[in-house]
Amino acid sequence: MLFRQLFDQESSTYTYLLADTATGDAVIIDPVREQVPAYLQLLRDLELTLVAALDTHVHADHITGLGKLREATGCLTWMGEQSAAPCVSARFSEGSEIAFGGYRLRTLYTPGHTDDSYCFLLDADDHHYAFTGDTLLIRGTGRTDFQNGSARDQYHSLFDRLLRLPGDTLVYPAHDYKGWTVSTIAEENACNPRLQVSGEAEYVAMMSALQLPNPKLMDVAVPANRACGTTS
């Protein structure tokens, strides 16, 4: 399997390109609109065919590249069934599988950061991968105070779902602000300060006390992303 972790400096967003090298079929997770020309060049350079572009949720800090990628390549665009985004080609739900060549991404519904948040799981080349969106970050978790977020739901998404994955599962989040690129479920379980809580009530209280400012692009990005980024 071909794997590329791509980074947008402005929004600190990680985008992931995955491909079956035998067939040339590829998927992109959480693309950023401003980076679409670079993605298209990379697809040409590597002689890949983009079959699907996916968002883990409706982002509030950047505009998605889903629509532009579909216009350029004819790929399918996917978001979760809870997303208020009528622009997508198809919707996934809990347990859906998205194929690229001989590989399958499996969807895991993990609400909390937003009510439409999903993670993608992949077993490939003797490794377990988890693309965790804004649900589980490296040494952090996604905020829960807008877009129908819920700290209570996020607690259960983390402790009842993600942290029950095999400990050696590689964690690849949608954002990082400190230069971290990858972790594991076991490492986050042991070292992530937001996960060192006694239970749901303590987690909810901790998240409620954060009082973070809204993302500066939120009023633009959310409606644009519900249109797959094809309008601003």
Characterization of the model:
There is one protein chain. This protein is α/β, with parallel strands linked by helices and 232 residues long. The chain has one domain: Ribonuclease Z/Hydroxyacylglutathione hydrolase-like (Metallo-beta-lactamase, Chain A), CATH 3.60.15. The chain is built from 6 helices and 14 strands. The chain has helices spanning 36-45, 66-73, 151-159, 185-191, 200-208, 218-225; strands spanning 2-8, 13-19, 25-29, 49-54, 76-80, 90-92, 97-100, 103-109, 118-124, 127-133, 136-137, 140-141, 170-173, 183-184. Strand 3, helix 1 (36-45) and strand 4 (49-54) form a beta-alpha-beta unit. Helix 3 crosses helix 5.
CATH topological fold name: Metallo-beta-lactamase, Chain A
Average pLDDT over all residues: 96
Strand content: 25-35%
Helix residue percentage? 10-25%
Regarding CATH, which class? Alpha Beta
Distance between the termini: 35 Å
Number of domains: 1
Secondary-structure element order, as H and E? Answer: EEEHEHEEEEEEEEHEEHHH
Quaternary arrangement of the chains shown?
A: single chain
The CATH level-2 architecture is identified as 4-Layer Sandwich
How many helix segments? Answer: 6
Structural class: alpha/beta
Superfamily (CATH H level) name = Ribonuclease Z/Hydroxyacylglutathione hydrolase-like
Radius of gyration (Å): 17 Å
